[in-house]
């Protein structure tokens, strides 16, 4: 199937019960770049991100209208396969959530689930994924240690390595550094800027300075409305909407 963008959103509206959360959002995400989604608490950032890989589906009161195309396919169509979707769209959460198993097993879990059995291949994947997540040097001698023994920042990079192990073209990140100390946060920001060489990153943050540091494009969401979406530099220099300006100058949010 041919497609222009790896991920494209058309007229997306969502509800929890009767409450409308996202209001007719249309946008697409540039390949090999970082797009930051910013906005005040409660504006719908997580709901939006979670819609992109169908994580809201388990919430009984959730309803949506519109289309989300991943590699040209509507992920909410009747014959869409959530299992296939999760191979294409990885997710990183605010709190690192390594599985309660060894560092190595955290990485091999996904690839095994998707049918990889060859030990040498799995071993190569462990090394590659940990290198891509800038964690290899710190854990290469302790691959059999329980992952929960790692520091918070290391755990988050392990979660990134775990996501990368199945080679998703798109990675979603919901406030991935806000639970970490500044040093660990800085390492992950650097990593995000490197990851875009290979994949499309969509990063939710309410930290404007972080959005400006790491993203190429930025979206500003306000009360469920996509108020502004453009090159980050343009938004930083001259926001078009007064609500965006109020947010980035710290007057709201
Ligand atoms: N499971 C749920 N059931 C009902 N309402 C929900 C649910 N999850 C979120 N909401 C509501 O949807 C709105 C948007 O929430 P969301 O978590 O997307 O905001 P956010 O921008 O990510 O905020 P924050 O910056 O605090 O993480 C809020 O009004 C919230 O109360
Ligand atoms: Mg959120």
Structure, described:
Strand 9 and strand 10 form a beta hairpin. The protein is α/β, with parallel strands linked by helices. Helices cover 36% and strands 25% of the residues. It has a single domain, classed as Rossmann fold. A six-stranded mixed beta sheet has the order 6-7-8-3-9-10, with helices on both faces. Strands 2-1-4-5 form a four-stranded antiparallel beta sheet, with helices on one face. The longest helix has 14 residues, at 119-132. The termini are far apart. Bound molecules: adenosine-5'-triphosphate (ATP) and magnesium ion (MG). Residues 16, 21, 39, 41-47, 59, 61, 206 line the site of adenosine-5'-triphosphate.
Radius of gyration: 18 Å
Total number of helices: 10
Question: What percent strand?
Answer: 25-35%
CATH topology: Rossmann fold
Envelope shape:
globular
Uncertain segments:
none
**Strand line-up across the major sheet:** 6-7-8-3-9-10
The level-1 CATH class: Alpha Beta
CATH superfamily: P-loop containing nucleotide triphosphate hydrolases
H/E topology pattern: EEEHEEHEHHHHEHEHEEHH
Spell out the key features of this protein.
alpha/beta; Rossmann fold; binds magnesium ion; binds adenosine-5'-triphosphate; 10 helices; 253 residues; four-stranded antiparallel beta sheet; six-stranded mixed beta sheet
Question: What would you say about this model in short?
Answer:
The chain has 253 residues and is of the alpha/beta class. It is built from 10 helices and 10 strands.
């Amino acid at each position: 199937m041919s497609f222009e963008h790896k991920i494209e959103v058309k007229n997306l509206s969502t509800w929890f019960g009767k409450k409308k959360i996202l209001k007719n959002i249309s946008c697409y995400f540039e390949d090999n770049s970082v797009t930051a989604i910013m906005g005040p608490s409660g504006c719908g950032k997580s709901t939006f991100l979670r819609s992109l890989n169908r994580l809201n589906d388990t919430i009984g009161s959730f309803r949506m209208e519109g289309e989300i195309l991943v590699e040209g396919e509507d992920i909410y169509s009747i014959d869409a396969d959530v299992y296939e979707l999760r191979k294409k769209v990885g997710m990183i959460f605010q709190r690192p959530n390594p599985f309660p198993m060894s560092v190595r097993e955290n990485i091999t879990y996904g690839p095994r689930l998707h049918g990889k059995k060859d030990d040498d291949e799995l071993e190569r994947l462990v090394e590659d994924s940990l290198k891509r997540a800038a964690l290899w040097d710190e854990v290469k001698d302790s691959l059999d240690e329980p992952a929960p023994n790692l520091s918070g920042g290391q755990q988050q990079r392990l979660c990134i390595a775990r996501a990368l192990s199945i080679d998703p073209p798109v990675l979603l990140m919901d406030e991935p550094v806000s639970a970490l100390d500044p040093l660990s946060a800085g390492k992950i920001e650097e990593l995000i800027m490197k990851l875009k060489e290979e994949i499309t990153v969509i990063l939710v943050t309410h930290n404007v300075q972080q959005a400006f540091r790491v993203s190429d494009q930025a979206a500003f969401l306000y009360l469920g409305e996509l108020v502004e979406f453009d090159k980050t530099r343009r938004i930083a220099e001259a926001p078009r909407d007064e609500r965006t300006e109020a947010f980035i100058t710290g007057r709201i949010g």
